[in-house]
Every structure is written in C-alpha cells, then in structure tokens.
Predict the 3D structure of the following.
Amino acid sequence: MLIKKIFNNNVLLAEDKQQDIVVIGRGIGFQNKRGDAVEEALIDTRYLPQDEHWGRTFNDLASEISPLVIEMASNILRHAEAQLHTTFNTYLLVSLADHISYAIEKAKQQIVGITTYYGKPVIIIRWNIKLGSGPSRRFLNKPAWRYLMMRRGSLH
C-alpha cells in the first residue's frame, strides 16, 4: 500500500491494489511523503470506497475541511460501531465530517457571549448537533458531544 496524499499526520489517501483507500491512524503520515509505503501497524481504520463517486466526494470534502474534522468523525464512528455492535456505510464518514465542519462554522458565526466557568473564560455558542435518531441518538450524542468539545480547541 502506497501513500497517494497526506492530509495530516493521522489521515492519508493510499492506493492498495490499484484502489484508493483512506487510512486513519496516529502518526501514520508523520515524516512520510507521497509514494512511501504505508506502515500497516499504524492503521486504526480503513475506509474503502464503495464506488468511484465516494472517492471523488471524499477528495472534494478533504480539500475543503480540516483533516482533523475527518479524524474526529472517524473516531466518533468507531465508537458508535463498537457500542452498537454494527458497521456503518463508508459514506457516513463523509456525511458526518461534513456535518461537523458545518456545525463548527455556524458556531464560529453565532457566538452569543463570554462568561466564566470555574474561573476560566468560556465562549457561549448556539450549537445544536443531532447525530442520530431513536434510542441510538440518546446513547451516541453525549459521548460524541464530549469528544467534540475536548477537541474543539484544536480546530482554531
């Protein structure tokens, strides 16, 4: 498997047997360049395109949003798959990353005030994210929200 494009240290587009594949793993792109072999031991998640459209859609999305958002979406999906004992369609990565990116942009535009929380300044925003429906929504929203809030400082 060879690197085609490095989005950041943790997200790559690679080619395996003449098929594009998105691989995510801690440090997988660090000190690598296009054409290098992907270190298999560092791969946490693989996203195989189901068709040619997925690859184009992912490339378009990856050129418009932060690779960190893609990584965040992947982590949320992995958590959800483990907790719900299921696997999701690979299109969900693109959709969730796009939704998170959109929510972040809207949040940046809708700052409604600054207050303090335990003596630290906190920006108050209107940010309403729905990550699912039915019983899974209540189950997934809290962990996904906590994860996004932990990582939000990395997005500025």
Observations:
- The CA atoms of residues 68 and 155 lie 7 Å apart.
- The domain at 2-48 is CATH 2.30.24.10 (Transcription Regulation, Sacy; Chain A).
